[in-house]
Predict the structure.
Amino acid sequence: MCKKEILRKKLKNSRSKLVNSYVTSNSSKIFNTLKNLLNQLSFNSIAVYKSFNNEVLTNDIISYYLSIDKVVCLPVLKDLNTMEFHQINVRSKMKLNKYGISEPINSSKINTNKIDIIIIPCLGFNENLYRIGMGKGYYDKILEDNESSTLICLAFEDQFIDEDFEEKHDIKMNYIITENSILF
């Protein structure tokens, strides 16, 4: 088992033990920090993941940016190796994908390079602004040729990994926001 796989297994186990009050309270703090950061940036479009399995909660983020007329996109899995971003609105219909994550149906694909801000989940992160995801590489693949979007990873402080684990295909974040800090 490689280093990342070992870390991923440990991080999944830790995250599964988080209690709802911790996730809710710290997600709220992270959302407020995100809003403050984004108030300083000029943007029209934002892609956000739909949270599940004790990830930083994103429903408030999605609702807020829809309410202030930003273009809001969610990831949609196309096949085993491909993800796209699709625009949503307050009336968008959703379905669960094969991982049990909500994604829009009958929605319009948006070119990733046209999205100003992309909010990304993680299992863990380090001080070098790299993240460990679930292991399928969906975000690394969709972002490999993207140089125009600002990449923001949302994480709980407990997900910090005090070691280097990044590989050449990993995509560096512009910011990592936790309940206590912003790394950039």
Notes: The helical segments are 3-16, 20-39, 59-67, 138-143. The chain has a mean pLDDT of 94.
